[in-house]
Amino acid sequence: MRIRAIFTAIMIGTVVCLTSSGASAQDAISASSPASTKQAQKQAQKQARKQARAKNKAEIKQLQKNGFDPADGEAGYPQNIQRAERRSQASGAGAASAPAK
């Protein structure tokens, strides 16, 4: 996200410089290299993957805290994780409805 903001600021600066020197905005847009755009997209995708991975890890940690053990294998798989999800939702709902002290 930070890289996208930097890239946008650079593009705006390029447009301002080129338009103040008499060039059109279209020239400023075409002046940006495709490589930098591709690199910005790649960075955005990488950041999205990192966020998704962090979210998944947090969810798994929460399930493990509520009794899910991935090492159990297929023995009690559906019931095991469903029970942990119910506990997680119940503890989340209880925490959300508890009055602040």
From TrEMBL:
Low complexity: bias regions: 89-101
Highest classification ranks of the organism: Bacteria, Pseudomonadati, Pseudomonadota, Betaproteobacteria, Burkholderiales
Region (Disordered): 27-101
Keyword Nuclease: no
Protein name (database record): DUF4148 domain-containing protein
Origin: domain of life: Bacteria
InterPro entries on file: DUF4148
Organism: Paraburkholderia tuberum
Alphabetized Pfam families for the sequence: DUF4148
Signal peptide span: 1-25
Keywords: Signal
Listed Polar residues bias regions: 27-37
